[in-house]
Amino acid sequence: MIPNTQLGDEQMKKVLAIDLGASSGRAIVGTFDGKKISLEEIHRFSNDPVILNGTMYWDVLRLFHEIKQSLIKAKHCGVESVSVDTWGVDFGLLDKDGRLLENPVHYRDGRTSGMVDESFKLIDKAEFYNITGNQFMEINTAFQLLSLVKNRPELLERADKAVLMPDLFEYFLSGEILAEQSIASTTQLFDAKEKQWSDKVLDKLGIKASLMPPIIKSGSVVGTLSAELCEELDIPPIKVIASCGHDTQCALAAAPAAEKDFIFLSCGTWSLLGTELDSPVIDENSFRLNVTNELGCDEKTSFLKNIIGLWLIQESRRQWIREGREYSFAELESMARASAPFKSFIDPDAPEFTPAGNIPKRICEYCSRTGQPVPQNDGEIMRCIYESLALKYRSAKEELEACTGREYSAVYMVGGGTKDRFLPQLTACSCGCTVSSGPVEATALGNIAVQLMAMGEISGLAEARAIVRSSERIYTFLPEDADKWEEAYKKYKEVTANA
Questions:
Q1: Residue 290: left if φ>0, alpha if ψ -120 to 50, beta else—which one?
Q2: Is the separation of the CB atoms in 302 and 252 below 8 Å?
Q3: What is the DSSP letter of 457?
Q4: Cα 4 → chain centroid
């Protein structure tokens, strides 16, 4: 391969990925030389929600300010396009003149409490799932909008469009109001088979169909940066591309899998564990197990489970900092490694672990309530979290296998959870299969790869993954101590079944 330094600028393609996570955002320039993608982080910033008068909001104006700073910094890099990916389900409301009515509300806000059960009074649960194929979670867009129908109808009367988060930022960039299909498929308002908004679900929930923007495919060119923005920032009018708006689908696009049948595990604040299929799986089994179908790159179906992930570690660390113990994430991993294995387990998805607050205290209370040894120090709490996540991954993997009728011998773990080596090793041991770990920056890589596909530089998903394999170092972990982990899994299932 010709080194990048020997290639002229005209032979390389550069694009800008704006990757917004639940706690931070990054601007990453991807440079493609025809064989490999190299990454350069040019801007990083925090994403701090704001609680005001009892409501938790995303600070969307501050986030857009940081996107502007990213564009200014990218000016001299020669990027040809930009795309934004974010978490799922949240949205902003625009009036008929395109003005934002209020800051988007955070999915962890309490406004959706009870809305799932409320929705089943309006639409049969089985029918609801049969249309959308989505895992029922209170955070989903459908239940956020239902809470407005019930409690703030005057706000919906003023709203002309509900625009999902990545599409909202791309609207701010280009002036175009659209809904990219991967992010639309997270809402529980999307017909998984027809790949359009479900008029029936919207009608049953009392949501006007006109509120939802037109749907476009992943990898669509939305337009260019607006003339107003270019003048303000003194930057050229580069393309705005809707890659995969949902960060999970960007990460999946960058999973370095060569085989057709595999498990992917996107591990960040949330863990998304699933497989990639040609069409959705919507039947009694998937309904009973509450598995979700999302739409990804190349119109593939991501058949997956949403699991609380590194949130448990992140929020525990915040609590300990409040108490005066400022651990780094590396120190927390070391503390977990040094603690005795298989003492206590939690169900990471138990409802008490979703809200912000004192997670370590809640873990101790869970262990006490379920008759297990209560962790005696911070290291034991960390060990409990790590092992419980790994065992939860096995449980989710078995549910997927039950639904698809396939067995999966390979897990591809991507995202922030691959920065340490402990969780991938525990996952290999728990699942009893090979775990390939990396890339850490899978979301940004996938965002970049889909932009390059939209520009005709990469032919499709298979080539994109081959390029990722040649561009990034991937670590391999093999299972160990099978008998001990089998015994731990039996204990985990007993504990969580009776919690």
A1: left
A2: yes
A3: S
A4: 32
- Tally helices (H) and strands (E) across the chain: 19, 21
pLDDT tens-digit profile of 168-191?
999 999 999 999 999 999 999 999
Average the pLDDT over 464-492 and give the result: 96
| In contact, 143 and 187? CB cutoff 8 Å | no
Whether the full predicted model's pTM is greater than 0.70, yes or no, is yes
N- to C-terminal Cα distance for the chain? Answer: 56
Q: Alpha helices, DSSP H only, in 185-259?
A: 199-205, 227-233, 247-253
What pLDDT sits at residue 5?
Answer: 40
Q: Rounded to whole angstroms, how far apart are CA atoms 455 and 444?
A: 17
Q: Do 146 and 118 touch, CB atoms closer than 8 A?
A: yes
**How large is the average pLDDT for residues 403-414?**
95
Ordered DSSP codes for 323-391: TT----HHHHHHHHHHSPSSS----TTSGGGSSSS-HHHHHHHHHHHTTPPPP-SHHHHHHHHHHHHHH
Q: Of residues 109, 191, 247, 378, which has the active-site annotation? A: 247
> Is 199 among the catalytic positions?
no
Residue with token string 């986030």 = 63
